[in-house]
Each structure stands twice: as structure tokens, then as C-alpha cells.
Amino acid sequence: MILVLRALGVGDLATTTPALRALRAAHPDQELTLIAPGWLTPLVDLIGGVDRIIDAPGLGPLHWTGPTPDLAVNLHGRGPQSHRMLAATRPRRLLAYANDDADHHDGPAWDDAEHEVHRWCRLLGAYGIEADPTDLALRRPPPGRVPTGVTVLHPGSKVPAKRWPPERFAAVARHLTAAGHHLVVTGDPTERPLAHHVAHLADLPTEAVLAGHTDLHDLATLTAHARLLISGDTGIAHLATAYHTPSVLLFGPASPAHWGPPPDRPRHRVLWIGDGDWSRWDGVGSHPTLAALPVDEVLAAVDELERTVRVSGAVAA
User: Fold this and answer.
1) Torsion angles phi and psi, residue 232, rounded to 5
2) Which of 39, 175, 225, 249 has the fewest C-beta atoms under 10 angstroms from its C-beta?
3) Which residues of 148-157 are buried (b: 16+ CB within 10 A; e: fewer)?
4) Is the dihedral of CA 180, 200, 208, 170 positive or negative?
5) Backbone phi, then psi, for 227, in 5-degree steps?
6) CB atoms < 10 A from the CB of 69, how many?
7) 227-270, pLDDT tens digit by residue?
């Protein structure tokens, strides 16, 4: 069996899609078990190829009682803790980045400047497993109980520094509503107050707030069938990339060169006025790089993106 570790969040898992599929293709007859938070199961199902999930909210003792893995693959980080977590299962072989502290020396060297998708493809490539970094698409769920054709605003992020000010999200919402967009505001249960605040400032009806009312499968379905997404550097942005949903993504302070959509995809616009300097954030509110991003620039990106989508649609027709 193959044991893979990626005990992180939505965007983190989405960026390992090419690597997971490459492992599946290289070992079609092996059981592929993923160690990840159990709540990510709907996203794992949309990636496909994973036979079993072991619920792990993060790094820590695994209490492994299964058979000895033929292969353990660290798609979580550089180690040593993640390396040791897998090594405790006594795999016949460990695929991971080199880490002297974990006594793992045969892997490639870690590169801080690398895009997260390419990082895991390169790791597998170093062990003779070819992965296609463009293989990011997820299975598209059919429309269900969520609305389709809507413009999704996602103002939240687990990292407060990555949140564009809610007043500016609301200003964008008012402009788009006047332009005929049907808006919804998303987020997890902890972000419901933020979503309601944005909706109140934008004069949106209460029913426009979907934060806390959608599970991960619903959120993927909503994104897959949306007209447009506007969000920060967070998990839902990776869903838009996977579904080629037009998106305007507000980055800061982290660079889109590390976490953004592929630069050759015309349906995504990334706005970033950053330098990657986290020390400039005082721990309160938006990072200065996001605070410097004006509403007009976001609206201009929306207009330009929608023109691009219309032209590409007309050409395809």
C-alpha cells in the first residue's frame, strides 16, 4: 500500500492533485491511503484515485495499526516532524525532501521559492515518478441545492493578514449588484459574522450570505457553476482554478508565484502589490500590501476579465 501525508487545508490539498494522480498512475494496483483532515473527504472524492482517508487534523502521533506501507510519501512539508510521522509506520521506502534532522538524506533539496504545485511534482520526479503540474482539474459536481451563475465573494481567510478590508468587498458588491450580478457571500462557520458584515454594508439580502451553510462539496459545486469569484489567497481560489471559473484573486503578502493560479490561464486575474515581507504586519487587520489595493483596481480587473471571457466564448461558439 501507499501512504501519503497532507494534513492541511483546502488549497494545500488542491495543490497536490497532480502528485496524487501521478502516484495513482504509477501504482494502479496499490491501495492509496491519504492522511488528511477528515472534513476534506468531499474534495478528496473530487480529485479521485484515493482509496482511503485517515483523519488527521495535523501533525502528531498516528497510532498506525495497518500493514507496513510499501511506500510512504511526504506531501506535507520538509520535515523533520512530518518525516518522523511517516517513518513511524516503518515503510519499506520513504519519498520525501532531504532532511538531516530526520535522518533522511536521499531526497531532493527543498526550494523556498518554488510554487506549491511544482514542489510536489518535482519531489516525485526525483524518484522517477512523472507528474503533470497542469493536471489540476477536479470532477465537476452537477448543480444541486446551491445557486448557479452567481458571483461569489469570499472575504475570509484563516490568516487575518490575507483578508482585504470588508468595506472594500462591500463597495465591490454594490457596484456589481448595480451591474446585474447576483451575489452570494461565502465562508466557513467562523466567518459568518464577517460575511454578514460585508452583506450589510453592501445592502445585500440576508439570504445572500451562504457562509456557514455550505459544506465543502457545496462550496465546490457553487464555485464550479459560478459566474465569477472574488477572493483572497485562500482555499476557494484553488477551486476556481480547478474549474476554470473566472476569478479575481487578491494576494498579499504571500506571492502568487508560490500559491497563485498558473500564469497562462486567461480566466484568472491576480492582483498583488506585495513584497513577501510578513514583518510589516502588526497582527491586526489586513496586511499593508492588501490595504494598499484600491477598489477601482479590483473593479477594473473584473471588467477586463469579463470582456476576455465574452470574447473567448464567442470564439469558441
Assistant:
1) -85, -165
2) 39
3) eebbbbbbbb
4) positive
5) -75, -40
6) 22
7) 999 999 999 999 999 999 999 999 988 889 999 999 889 999 99
